[in-house]
Amino acid sequence: MDNKHEAQGPESQKLASANPESVEHASDQSEPIKPETADIPPVEATDATAKNEIAAPKIASTQKADSGSTPTRSSWGIRFGVLLALGISACTIGAGFMLYQQLQQQLVLQEGKNTLLQEKLQQALQQPNLRISQLEQQQANDAKTFQDLSKLANGQSQLHERINKLAQRSPTHWMAAEAEYLVNMAGRKLWLEKDPRTATDLLKSADETIAAMNNPALLPIRKALAKDIAATANMKSVDIDGNVLALDALIEQLDKLPLSRNDGEANAEEDTTISADVSDWQANLNKTWKAITQDFITIRHRTADAPALLAPDQQWYLVENIRHKLLQSQLALYRYDAASYRQSLMMAKQWLQTYFDTRAHQTQETIAKIDELAGLELNLITLTSFAAKPLLLQLTSYGELTSEEEPQL
Fold it and tell me: How far apart are CA 252 and CA 254, in angstroms?
């Protein structure tokens, strides 16, 4: 009730001030008055009282109308304020979200710029590092070039010294070079061609050349040459080329050797001469008949143990196997393999004695030649170097012997 009275408008306040009694009457009428008794009759009102009663309901109805309109207006205002606050909040939130997005975009752009700056900075740093590495490599190359130049300078100085020594040499220096060449040729004959006889002759020629120089300082060279000559002269020389050619001749004669026919047990040849005596006409007739039939039919009598004749293809294989063994003996001769050399020759000899006619002159000569070649002695060369070679090298390089020590064999 207090709120209703407080919410009344200015018109109601004017009416209350003008007619306070009616206001009080209206306030009194707001609560229903219960009659105390039902027997009390109604009191008739005067004209003034009736007018007041008529005016009072009108004022009360006006007050009720004013009090009902005032709360409606205030609720709409509150609602409008709330909506306005919500709109302002939504706008604020939207503006904040847009600002946040703009900040995020600016952060992304700033990160991209930072990345580009880092890449540019790294590229800018790589160029000095690359330049530094290039300078270090160039410095290493310069140091290597300096070392090479130092080596070349040292070599050039040594070459000048050698040239000066060569200029001061005696006019007989070409004789020292000739002696060195002869020793080199002797080594080639001895170790490559297995010819100690020729090697000995070449060493003797080198000794004669050194002796012709007539220089007592070269006695160590002559002493070393004497040792080399004695070592090669004690070696037995073997004519390798001659023996190889002899084996080639045997290989060429294999096709001409007759095979063994095993006719040793055949009947002896009968006398087919016809006598002049007429009384021997029967014998002459038999001899004539045998002479005629002998050209058409040949009958040989063999024992059971005699080997069968070779077929043509087997004969060809036999000859090729013997040729192969002789070629193996040639290879062993070049290698100085005495065991393989004799084994190949003995195998070829055995096949010749077994399958070829040993009564034929050609077969006998071939077997005798194989025996002669098998008796060849092949001695291994144990000498590995010449003692005079390093001394001659000193003589040709420096014009004199730099050391007086005797070379060791």
Answer: 6
